[in-house]
Amino acid sequence: MNWIEVAGFVLTIVGVFLSIYQSVWVWPVNILSPIVYVVLFYNSRLYGDMSLQILFIVLAVYGGFQWSKQEMRPKKAVRFLRPKEYLFYVPLTLVLFWIVYYILKNYTKTDVACFDAILTATSITATILAARKCIENWIIWILTDIAYVFLLIKKDLHLTAFLYGLIAAMAVYGLYTWRKEWKSQ
User: Fold this and answer.
1) How far is CA 91 from CA 14, 86, 152, in A?
2) Cα–Cα distances in Å, from 31 out to 25, 27, 36, 124?
3) Which of the residues in the chain have pLDDT under 50?
C-alpha cells in the first residue's frame, strides 16, 4: 500500500457517494480519481484498467455535460433502459471486450488479458449508463466490482481490492436508492 493507492481509495469513495446522491460534483471527483489510478495500474501492469481510467476521465466530462442538461437536473430523472437500448449496450459491451482483449493480448505484457478486458468493457458500459442516469448501471457495477476484488487480490493491491468490495456494497445501496426514486416518479 502506498500514498497513491490511499489517495485513489479516498477519491473513489467520495465519488461513489456523490453518484448515489446524484450530486453534479461526482464528475470533477471522477476526473481526479482516475488520474491517480492511471499511475497505480501502470505500476501494477494492469494496462486495460489503466487505459480504462483514461477513458473514465473522458466519460466524466461527458457525464458532467449530460447531468447539466435541464432534463437531467431533477433527481427523479433516473430511469430503466428501454428494451431496444439493450440491443445497443449488450453488443457494445461485447465489441469493447474483444477490442480490449485483442490489444491487451497482443500489445502488452499483462498476465490477465481476458479478465482485464471483461472488466474494462463492463466498466465502460456502466459508466455510460450512469451518465445517462440508467438504473442498470448499478447492477453492472455490483457484478464488475465483485469481480475486480479477485483480480486486485491477485495483483496484491489489497487496499484497492477492499475498496472495490466496499464500492460493490455501495452500489447495492445506489441501486436501492435510484429504484426508490424511480418508483416515486
Assistant:
1) 31, 8, 27
2) 10, 6, 9, 15
3) none
The answer to whether 5 touches 160, Cβ cutoff 8 Å, is yes
Q: pLDDT value at position 1?
A: 64
Q: What are phi and psi of 22, to 5 degrees?
A: 55, 40
Helix (H, G, I), strand (E, B) or coil at 79: strand
Q: Considering its fold, how many domains does the chain have in total?
A: 1
Q: Answer whether 0.85 is exceeded by the pTM.
A: no
Q: Give how far Cα 117 sits from Cα of 83, 112, 138, 145, Å.
A: 26, 8, 19, 14
Q: Which domain holds residue 71?
A: 3-183
CA distance 73 to 50: 31
Q: How far is CA 26 from the centre of its chain?
A: 12
Helix (H, G, I), strand (E, B) or coil at 78: coil
In the chain, alpha helices (H): 3-20, 26-43, 47-68, 83-107, 113-131, 136-154, 158-183
CA distance 170 to 14: 11
C-alpha grid cell for residue 9?
Answer: 481509495
The confidence score (pLDDT) of residue 119 equals: 94
Give the pLDDT of residue 20: 87
DSSP 145-157: HHHHHHHHHHTT-
